[in-house]
Amino acid sequence: MGEYLDRFNSVSDSYKAFAIFAIALIIGLVNYFLGFSPLKDEYNVLLEKRSSLEKKKVEYDAKSKTLEMDRRINREINRMLNEKKGRLPDTTDIEKVIAVLGRKAEQAAVRIIDIKPKKEEIKELYVEKTIELSVIGSFHETLNFLYMVSKTERIVNMDDIIMSDPVYKNQKAVVKSNLTLKVYRFKKITEEKKEKVKK
Fold first, then answer.
1. Do 52 and 76 have their domain in common?
2. pLDDT of residue 85
3. Would you say 180 and 186 are in contact if contact means Cβ atoms under 8 Å apart?
4. What is the reported pLDDT for 131?
5. Is residue 125 in a domain?
6. Torsion of CA 108, 113, 118, 120, to 10 degrees
7. 159/146 Cα distance (integer angstroms)
8. 185 membership: H or E segment, kind and range
9. How far is it, in rounded angstroms, from Cα 184 to Cα 130?
10. Which pLDDT does position 60 carry in this prediction?
11. Which of 31, 36, 99, 179 supports an S-S bond with 161, CB 3.0-4.6 Å?
């Protein structure tokens, strides 16, 4: 080793500087390339994590928008349900329905001769009550009665309207009309549970 140091000391200062620079450069390059590979791998891992986080952010933003849209739709449905609640009450209240029919018949100048409420039918989202009704009046009066019933606050459907037995009275044709009315109400949670138990 001493021999190499003597040789090194015998060379010119410029050669010594160049040799030291070359050795330092080689050591630096070796360290750079040996150290760069792990750094490059770490950099790639960080890039992948960043890409994954960006994808998750996009997914989160999409879910957030969907959730906000769902909330808006639910608010609108609740608003509409509250608006319609008067037309689709919680109870059938058949006495009130019959009283309304009586008032409408009086206003239209028809006479109710028979009214038969039937058993309620539980449907998927509501409960339906059928009422069989017979009225007597002129053709025009009967149509006016049906129109007035259709304009009540409650939702009322009319089916199977049959007009028969026309008789000429007081200068007008009087007919007997048989029809089926259907009124509705909200289905209660307890009724939903009973339906599930039956199934």
1. yes
2. 61
3. no
4. 94
5. yes
6. 20
7. 11
8. strand 172-186
9. 9
10. 82
11. 179
Q: Is residue 198 part of a domain?
A: no
Residues 6 or more apart whose Cβ sits within 8 Å of residue 153: 86, 87
Structure tokens at 10: 């015998």
Cβ–Cβ under 8 Å, residues 144 and 135: no
Q: Count other C-beta atoms under 10 Å from residue 94's C-beta.
A: 14
Print burial letters for 142-170: b (CB count within 10 Å at least 16), e (below 16): bbbbbebbeeeebbbeeeeeeeeeeeeee
Q: Does residue 168 register a pLDDT over 90?
A: no
pLDDT over 90 percentage in the chain: 27
Say if CB 111 and CB 105 are below 8 A apart: yes
- Return the ∠ at Cα 44 (arms to 39 and 48), rounded to 5°: 150
Q: What's the pLDDT band for 17 if we cut at 50, 70, 90?
A: confident
Boundary (domain end) residue, out of 44, 60, 84: 84
How would you class 120 by CB atoms within 10 Å of its CB: exposed for 0-12, middle for 13-18, buried for 19 or more? middle
CB-CB contact of 108 with 141 (8 Å): yes
Asked, for residue 197, whether it belongs to a domain, the answer is no
Q: How confident is the model at residue 36 (pLDDT cuts 50, 70, 90)?
A: low
When pLDDT is cut at 50, 70 and 90, the band that residue 116 belongs to is very high
